[in-house]
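Q: what sequence does this backbone want?
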């Protein structure tokens, strides 16, 4: 059974940092792309960052230069380092596994999702 479990969400002040983790099990994830998405109340889920099997990355313009996606294949773990956090980063963050190898922020390319972890940024 494929499972993605996120952790690391918290409440932080503006300008603070957090690192989210996502542990994958039951899935040969190193062969496929992985991504982080987020969903704020009343808004659609949006792609934040993605990484493919070779380590190529893609970021949403809103987080470029502040967030870094990485992975540790030996630990089956995906990370999202978030720096210089802003109130507009407040959302539930989801880890997702794509069905292909292409690095993309297109939500429909992802078929496996974690349960989400809450990030709240306050001023």
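A:
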């Amino acid at each position: 059974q494929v499972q993605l479990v996120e952790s690391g969400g918290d409440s932080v002040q503006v300008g603070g940092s957090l690192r989210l983790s996502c542990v994958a099990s039951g899935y040969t994830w190193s062969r496929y792309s992985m991504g982080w998405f987020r969903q704020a109340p009343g808004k659609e889920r949006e792609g934040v960052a993605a990484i493919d099997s070779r380590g190529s990355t893609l970021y949403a313009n809103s987080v470029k230069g502040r967030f870094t996606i990485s992975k540790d294949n030996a630990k089956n773990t995906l990370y999202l380092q978030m720096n210089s956090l802003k109130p507009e980063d407040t959302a539930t963050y989801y880890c997702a596994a794509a069905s292909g190898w292409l690095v993309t922020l297109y939500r429909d390319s992802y078929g496996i999702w974690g349960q989400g972890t809450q990030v709240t940024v306050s001023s």
